[in-house]
Amino acid sequence: MGILAFGINHKSASVDLRGQIAFAPEIVVESLQSALVTMKAAEIALLSTCNRTEIYLQGEVSDEQLLAWLAGAKGLEVEALQACYYCHRDEQAIRHMMRVASGLDSLVLGEPQIFGQIKSAYSVGREANTVSTFLNQAFQQAFSAAKRVRSETAIGQNPVSVAYASVSLAEQIFSDLGSAHALLIGAGETIELVARHLQEKNIGQLTVANRTLIRAQELAADFSAEAILLSDIPDYLHKADIVISSTASQLPILGKGAVESALKLRKHKPIFMVDIAVPRDIEPEVEELADVYLYTVDDLEEVIQDNMRARQTAADLGQEIIDQEVVSWAKQQRALAAVDTIKAFRDSVESIRDGEVEKALSALERGLDSVDVINTLARNLTNKLLHKPTTKLKQASEEGRDDTIHVTHELFDLNKK
User: Fold this and answer.
1) How far apart are CA 48 and CA 277, in angstroms?
2) How many helices, marked H, and strands, marked E, lie in the chain?
3) Which residues are catalytic?
4) What's the first-to-final CA gap in the chain, in angstroms?
5) Fewer CB within a 10 Å sphere, N or C end of the chain?
6) In this predicted model, what pLDDT tens digit does every residue of 25-52 receive, in sequence order?
7) Is the peptide bond before 279 cis (omega within 30 degrees of 0)?
8) 3-state secondary structure of 361
9) Could you tell me the residue range of the domain that residue 166 belongs to?
10) Is the per-residue pLDDT at 417 higher than 60?
11) pLDDT value at position 324?
């Protein structure tokens, strides 16, 4: 059974559809176990980020089965997914996994966060007992390729990410970030990167809002920021010139009404907002307000494209590394494919050997001459071991299958005379 990589990403689907099929972390284990049983797969793993939801699977599973399971799991019609999914199989699947892990398939070329996310997907699969030998090997090969790309190319130089793109856009809108107040919603890795980039740009004030105050305080302490709860946002929103949000919430954090109230207190001084979350943290209707500049991850495309050009040469070299790793993977799989044949061959030979040894020992017990017994043993072993191969070679020669003859010479290192 082969491997496949199935899913949708930022290239194939809108941010709204990606949000609808995203899997919250707390349901991934249950979803994996359900998928394994429903599709009768051997192994399965699930990667779900703001830019992609992908299933890595070993088994004989059709595109239609995968579409039906995903649509059913997310309460969608299959037709909603048919135009935007992809499914890679065998070598193309492992190539895709390597590209994802290396950041070569990311919205921001070479971004490092995806490596941690795919490692997490692997770990959750192991925890759920849906990843074992085959996918374990696939993930390890993908990790190895990603590490080579990161260490042997300049793909990781020049900070380029959705977080960096958000701050770059803010810098274009505000001539002096030193006098601006930024409100960051969430306390995950992306928001931490945003805070780091804002600090490097000498942001004036920084406030971190999170569902749990302790985590907000931990992050705020690193950046001399103020920490608040999500429930406190309405009291602080009017102070913010910049709002950047990235949480795992399944429902919007900021609605149109709250933003309208903040704008009134600001006397309609504009607010720049970036919603990096999938599903969205900020209601789309907020964009209708005259004094709000709201951007989603899809709107960052132009900024990101500029940054991608700086990494393209490194990415080309990275692709060469991945090509090498795919060849290595294919060789390993072909070698593994021979294991069953080798085992069957050894079992057959050992069965013949054991039978002849038993006959020889019986002859010796009956007092027959030991030299005659050994000669008979050797002759019988030779005849029985060569009978089937000789018959098959004669048949191949009669049928003109010279390839079989050539393979035999190579296999047994025979010298032609």
Assistant:
1) 12
2) 17, 10
3) 50
4) 43
5) C
6) 999 999 999 999 999 999 999 999 989 9
7) yes
8) helix
9) 162-305
10) no
11) 95
